[in-house]
Description:
GO biological process, one term: regulation of canonical NF-kappaB signal transduction
CATH class of the domain at 5-104: Alpha Beta
Oligomer: single chain
Strand content: 5-15%
Mean pLDDT: 87
CATH topology of the domain at 5-104: Herpes Virus-1
GO molecular function, one term: zinc ion binding
Distance between the termini: 134 Å
Strand order of the largest sheet: 2-1-3
Largest sheet: 3 strands, antiparallel
CATH architecture of the domain at 5-104: 2-Layer Sandwich
Protein name: RNF41 ligase
Number of strands: 9
Coiled coil: 192-243
CATH superfamily of the domain at 5-104: Zinc/RING finger domain, C3HC4 (zinc finger)
Number of helices: 5
Structural class: mainly alpha
Zinc finger (TRAF-type): 101-144
Amino acid sequence: MGYDIERFVGYVNEGLLCSICRDVLEDPLQAPCEHAFCAACIHGWLVHHSNCPEDRQMIDVSLLRPLYRYMKNDLNRLQLHCKNREYGCEMVCSLESIDRHERECEYSQIPCSNAGCTVQIERRNLDGHLAVCEYRSRECPNGCGYTILSAEDTQHNCVAELRTELELLRSEMICRVEEAKHEMESRLDSQRRHMVQKESILQNEIEELKSQMSRMMSDVRSLMAAERQHRQELEQAELEKREL
């Protein structure tokens, strides 16, 4: 939607009005046929149509372009009243600077900054409201250190508040201890599984080494037996040689 034409001072050129809402262009876009629209208006129109609302020529979102520079300059120079005119603001400024003014306008209706308060107040009166707001907070005057709302003054009990806080801290501590305990148990289980796995691997390696040693001893015995046999054969041959 565009800017309400009633807010503007003086004449507004027809070419600076949105072809859909007929108000002064806001975030303007232009179709190839040179008709101009508010960005929100034309995007909403193209959800259900595929043509220009003025001359029915076919258009697509991808064909929309920013307003011509000279038209943009003319638009930015238009003078209009602040939207808070009904609340007493008499500011008139250019369209180019109206957003900046309205963000800071003393007559703007803003929410109270206190949690729980639903009051809308003029910015210029906010400090006065905060001083008396029933949702304003302050530190307990009895020295317990708690921040309380003014509306809770009569219900505030330092001992009860501290006892509640102590119970919350105790519960939080128990939860943290349980979490630490579970984490340590999980780590121990993981390490235990790792050690068992390592032990199994080492046991398999030991058995493999034993098997290799057994094979080596068997080979050594075979070699020694062969050596004895060979020595006996040599001795027999020596005897036969002597007899000859």
